[in-house]
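Late entry, evening session. Most of the bench is empty. Finally got around to the prediction I had been postponing all week. Sequence below, unchanged from the version circulated by S.P.
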Amino acid sequence: MKKTASLARKPSAASSPAGRVRIIGGQYRRTPIAVADVPGLRPTPDRVRETLFNWLAHLLGDFSRLRALDLFAGTGALGFELASRGASSVTLVECSPRAVDALRALRQRLDAGAVQVVAADWRAAVARLAPASLDLIFLDPPFDAGLLLPALEACLRLLAPGGLLYAESAQALEGPALAALGLEIVRADRAGAVHFHLLRGRVC
C-alpha cells in the first residue's frame, strides 16, 4: 500500500529498504519507487504485492484488457505494478500534492502511457467515473479513518461484470458487513498487522 497525510498509515514490515519500494514484475521490473516525504505515507510491502499479483494472475490470466483504479494511490506501487504487467489503463487517484507530483514524475520517467494520475478527493473521483467501467479496483484507505466500507460501497457501481476489488485493513473483513454490500471474499491473507483481501460481487 501507500498513503498520504490524509491517508495516515500503520507500521508494517516491508521487504524493501525504508523510503523505497520496487516494482516486482513486468516491463518496469526492479524499478525503485521512492516514498515521498509525506506524513503517514506507507507503501504496500513487496511481499504483499507479490502474493496479490499471484492471485490475480491465477484468476485473470492475461492483464492486457484490464481497466483499473488505484483510489488511494499514495506511491502508486499497486497501480504501477499492474501497468508494468500490461494493463490497458490504470487510473491513480491521490489528494496529496506532493504525492501527486511524485506519481506524475514516475509516470513520465517510465513513459507509462497506460497510467493516468488524477489529483482529487476519492469521493469526487468516484463520482466522475462511469458505471461498470472498471475490472479491478485497489482500495487502501487509512485504517483509522473509517473509509474502507464507504469506499467499497461507492465503488461497487464502477465494477464491470466479473470485476474484482482489492482491500487492505487492520482487521479481517468478515461475512455480515460484506454480505450487506453484496460482496464475497475470493482470497484473503495477512502480513503482520495488515489484512488484505480480494473481493467480488456475490453470485446469486
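Two things to note before I forget:
DSSP finds six helices and nine strands in the chain.
The longest helix spans residues 46-60.
Will write this up properly tomorrow.
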